[in-house]
Design goal:
Layout: E1 2-4, H1 14-19, E2 32-37, H2 49-58, E3 63-68, H3 72-82, E4 86-90, H4 97-106, E5 110-115, H5 125-128, E6 133-137, H6 153-164, E7 171-175, H7 183-189, E8 193-196, H8 198-201, H9 206-217
Parallel strand pairs: 1-8, 2-3, 3-4, 4-5, 5-6, 6-7, 7-8
Helix pairs in contact: 3-4
The chain binds D-xylitol-5-phosphate and zinc ion.
Amino acid sequence: MIAPSILSADFARLGEEISAIAGEGDTRADWVHVDVMDGHFVPNLTIGLPVVQSLLKVTDVPLDCHLMIENPDRWAPGYAEAGAHNVTVHVEAAHDPVMIAKNLRAAGAKAGLSVKPDTRLEDHLDTLKHYDTLLVMSVEPGFGGQSFIPRVLDKVRTARRLVDTGHLTVLVEIDGGINADTIEQAAEAGVDCFVAGSAVYGAGDPGQAVAALRAQAAR
Ligand code: DX5
Ligand code: ZN
């Protein structure tokens, strides 16, 4: 699966930018990744619920909301209630991640848990049993266009093994620095869903970029 991040899109033309990856066949994105940042959990500020509500009206591509915010316990359920397909919170910010997952699922969304590059998976395995997706950050969250951190692939391999042996049932997603040079190693490590911002929206034709990444991931 390919999930283009609109963080690298033109915020004045978000509807059109999403249309560019909502065509048919290989050029169609599986999810649209929406990076919500609050200027506290990460040193950057982006968009929030009102923009997500507007996007939900103009696209039928499922929205994958990545909340890089403090107190997701308070704010995450609103994204699920609005109609986001998947809502991901950071384990480093969550006060009661099991309760968050329950609330997200009760509101009809998939529950996602994200780990920063230095956060150990082993410390959160019991929590992950309550989640549908695991978002492994392959850059420090906050900005698009950073370089991929290869050491996080160990975490991906661990997650893949736990899923394949039936100990976890999460979809494994990776976010940060995914492009033509890095997607194959991530695929080989066992990623199911690839977030790509600059590699999609920095390309002349975002739809073709989605198709190209998809082909590379499947190699
Ligand atoms: C970073 C965001 C990413 C970002 C990825 O904090 O979570 O989703 O948009 O951008 P690229 O693909 O350019 O690294
Ligand atoms: Zn993200």
